[in-house]
Design the sequence.
């Protein structure tokens, strides 16, 4: 506006709003310059003239208004020199404030050197600066810029609804949607030295920092960077959108990274650490155990101090689940404590197990598998080499394709194999199939043993030099027999001898119905018979028989551990075992603990000496010596007790329970039922001794005699009394006769039936076992049909079964046994792991 037309009211006055020259810069720079220069420029102007109220509806002052002409040229020039500094004269910016113009929203600057600009702006702290509608500075040196902004001591707040209430705090950022829409919170910094930057960012802990939309940190020294990132513990750091850290000194880097374990570190999208001192690196990597480390896509370290390194293979991630376990390789896993699995798809399943190599597998305690596709299945077994396999306890297989199946066996060399216990196979393709032997070849591919030193002890091997020397000394002198030749010939047996003339008398051997005069032929026949027997035994999955002359036959595919510990013990079935001399356990999980114990049936348990349990789940407790339990779930818990029938129970010494569900709980009694489930005893023979049971016939005869005697005695005294006595006696004896008759019949029938069923069960078990031996390990793609026959005490049974391989690792079998009216059947399926 030219000075010549300026209203007289404005002449000679400088507007405090015209304080900055026109600048070419971004809004943030302009705002900061305004904050820094406005107090210095405005102070002398405001002090020299009357202040202009900012409560006016609209105030707009131009540069022309700042140099208004005076009525007198000289006085005007003097006034211009005293009132208008050069910076104001050069100002070209506009400065405008809107308000309601009724005095209700006046700005207020009450602090020393304070500045308040905008409707309802307040600066109560010394040297505070409040710019913007309802902006507020509550303490010294604070700066608040924006609508509804609050700043505290030496704090800076910028943005709609921003709050910097902590000392030396900085809050820059508006609310989500604006305070006019009911969303009043912008960036918030309430902690000492806290910094929040971004819409709705919050830094409430001292020296904490929140950067990003909705970022939040509420603890001292926390750092949250990224949209919705959260650092909610002392020293926590969350970097990445939606990352979340709640543990002290934890660090989460990546979208959705999550840390709840103290000092944990998660790096990668959706990585997670919940254990203290854990580390997860990679997309979806997860550590749940304290001190665990997971590296790779979806790698999982669950055990304490465990390490899982590797990516996912076919949906299976690298997993270290046990305490101190380690996995390295895609799809590798270590399931138990201190296991180690290294290599693609390697598996260490048991405690202290080790699997090194692609698809190496170690399944048993302290087992070691080294090499691609190597397999260690026995406890403390070792398999080294490509597809090497050690399944016996303490067995060792060294070499590509080497196999050690027998406990304590050693197979050394490519494709060498050991099936005998404590045997050794040395050299490529060597085979040791007998216990406690050393083989350096196989049938048809024998080897010489060279460089053998001369033996010195009785059990040492001899070399040819020693044999030649022995042959040279075996000569006759003057037709006399050399000392020891007769004894040597006699050692061959079969009538072999040595004549005085030096002739050898040939032996005669009878083997399998054939006669032999040559030791070699006889041994060949024996070897053939043993080979056939060995082949049949090899088809069984046997378990250790640790007792003297013990026999144990385990379940197929190693599904149960079968042990015959006692002398002459016999254990047949998965998990079957004997613990005493002459013990017998037949059936899956059957156990005969003491000497002369017998347990027949699945899970039959005999814990007392000299006792017998027949039937699935039948049991005899430790204190029930010399007891018998026959029938499914039959149980005896007292010495010399006998329980016959499904669920029959004896709890008193010397008692007998006969029949399904019968209970005998009194000493030296016979029970054929239970309370509420009583039975009759029928077909009872007439008793002859005073302690024999009487039948109804005897009771009736006794009744007649008793009545006759009573009549003769009482005819002359009281006819009425006799009639009453007769009636009472008839009733009582009739009831007693009925009960004894039923008891006798039930006892006889039950015992006869149980005897026959026991014999049939034994025959069926024998038939099933012989059928299973011949059906197992078939190589035919069409499978194998096998049959078995068994006998026991005049009862016979027939068993028929079928087995078929499924692929290279699995098999299927079905079979049944028949004896009279009793039948049993079973279906099985196995798979190599």
Sequence:
């Amino acid at each position: 506006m030219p000075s010549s037309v300026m209203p007289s009211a404005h002449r000679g006055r400088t507007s405090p709003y015209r304080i900055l020259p026109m600048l070419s810069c971004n809004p943030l720079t302009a705002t900061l310059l305004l904050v820094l220069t406005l107090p210095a420029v405005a102070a002398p102007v405001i002090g020299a003239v009357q202040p202009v109220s900012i409560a006016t509806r609209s105030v707009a002052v131009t540069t022309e208004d700042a140099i208004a002409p005076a009525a007198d040229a000289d006085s005007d020039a003097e006034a211009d020199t005293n009132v208008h500094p050069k910076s104001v004269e050069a100002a070209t910016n506009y400065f405008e404030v809107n308000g309601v113009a009724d005095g209700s929203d006046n700005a207020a600057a009450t602090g020393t050197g304070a500045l308040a600009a905008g409707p309802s702006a307040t600066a109560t702290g010394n040297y505070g600066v409040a710019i913007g509608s309802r902006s507020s500075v509550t303490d010294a040196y604070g700066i608040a810029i924006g609508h509804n902004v609050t700043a505290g001591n030496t704090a800076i707040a910028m943005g709609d609804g921003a709050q910097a209430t902590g000392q030396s705090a900085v809050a820059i950022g508006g609310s989500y949607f604006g305070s006019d829409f009911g969303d009043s919170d912008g960036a918030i910094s309430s902690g000492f030295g806290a910094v929040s930057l971004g819409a709705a960012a919050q830094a409430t802990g001292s020296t904490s920092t929140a950067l990003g939309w909705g970022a939040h940190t509420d603890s001292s020294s926390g750092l949250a960077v990224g949209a919705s990132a959260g650092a909610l513990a002392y020293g926590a750091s969350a970097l990445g959108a939606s990352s979340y850290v709640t543990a002290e000194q934890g660090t989460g880097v990546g979208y959705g990274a999550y840390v709840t374990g103290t000092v944990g570190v998660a790096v990668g999208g959706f990585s997670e650490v919940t254990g203290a001192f854990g580390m997860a690196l990679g997309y979806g990597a997860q550590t749940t155990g304290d001190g665990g480390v997971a590296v790779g896509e979806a790698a999982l370290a669950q055990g304490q101090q465990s390490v899982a390194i590797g990516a996912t293979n076919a949906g299976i991630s690298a997993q270290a689940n046990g305490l101190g376990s380690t996995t390295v390789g895609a799809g590798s896993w270590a399931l138990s404590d201190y296991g180690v699995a290294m290599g693609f798809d390697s598996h260490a399943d048991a405690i202290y197990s080790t699997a090194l190599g692609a698809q190496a597998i170690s399944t048993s305690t302290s087992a070691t598998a080294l090499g691609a596709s190597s397999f260690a299945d026995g406890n403390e077994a070792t398999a080294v080499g490509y597809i090497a396999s050690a399944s016996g306890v303490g067995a060792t297989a060294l070499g590509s394709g080497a196999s050690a199946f027998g406990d304590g066996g050693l197979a050394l060399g490519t494709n060498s194999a050991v099936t005998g216990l404590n045997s050794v196979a040395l050299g490529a393709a060597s085979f040791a199939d007998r216990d406690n032997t050393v083989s350096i070849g196989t049938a048809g591919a024998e080897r010489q043993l060279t460089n053998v030193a001369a033996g010195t002890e009785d059990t040492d091997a001899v070399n040819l030099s020693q044999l030649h020397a022995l042959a040279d000394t075996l000569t006759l002198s003057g037709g006399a027999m050399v000392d020891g030749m007769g004894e040597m010939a006699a050692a061959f047996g079969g009538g072999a001898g040595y004549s005085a003339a030096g002739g050898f008398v040939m032996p005669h051997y009878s083997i399998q119905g054939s006669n032999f005069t040559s030791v070699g032929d006889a041994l060949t026949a024996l070897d053939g018979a043993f080979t056939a027997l060995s082949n049949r035994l090899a088809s069984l999955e046997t378990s250790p028989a640790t007792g003297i002359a013990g026999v144990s036959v385990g379940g197929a595919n190693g599904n149960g551990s079968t042990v015959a510990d006692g002398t002459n013990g016999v254990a047949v079935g998965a998990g079957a075992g004997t613990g005493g001399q002459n013990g017998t356990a037949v059936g899956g999980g059957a156990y005969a603990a003491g000497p002369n114990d017998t347990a027949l049936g699945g899970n039959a348990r005999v814990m007392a000496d000299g006792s017998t349990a027949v039937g699935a789940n039948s049991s005899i407790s430790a204190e029930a010596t010399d007891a018998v339990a026959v029938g499914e779930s039959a149980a005896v818990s007292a010495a010399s007790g006998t329980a016959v029938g499904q669920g029959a129970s004896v709890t008193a010494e010397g008692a007998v329970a006969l029949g399904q569900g019968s209970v005998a709980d009194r000493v030296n009694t016979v029970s054929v039922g239970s309370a509420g489930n009583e039975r009759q005893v029928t077909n009872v023979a007439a008793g002859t001794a005073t302690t024999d049971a009487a039948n109804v016939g005897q009771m009736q005869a006794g009744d007649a005699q008793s009545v006759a005697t009573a009549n003769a005695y009482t005819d002359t005294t009281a006819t009425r009394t006799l009639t009453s006595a007769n009636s009472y006696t008839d009733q009582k004896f009739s009831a007693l006769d009925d009960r004894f008759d039923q008891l006798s019949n039930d006892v006889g029938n039950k015992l006869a039936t149980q005897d026959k069923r026991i014999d049939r069960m034994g025959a069926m078990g024998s038939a099933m076992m012989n059928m299973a031996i011949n059906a197992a390990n078939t190589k035919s793609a069409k499978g194998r049909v096998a049959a078995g026959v068994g006998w026991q005490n005049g009862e016979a049974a027939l068993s028929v079964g079928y087995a078929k391989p499924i692929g290279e690792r699995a098999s299927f079998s079905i079979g049944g046994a028949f004896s009279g009216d009793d039948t049993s059947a079973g279906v099985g399926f196995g798979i190599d792991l």
Summary: DSSP finds eight helices and 71 strands in the chain. The longest helix spans residues 719-775. Residues 760-831 form a domain with the Pantoate--beta-alanine Ligase; Chain: A,domain 2 fold (CATH 3.30.1300.30). The CA atoms of residues 268 and 283 lie 5 Å apart.
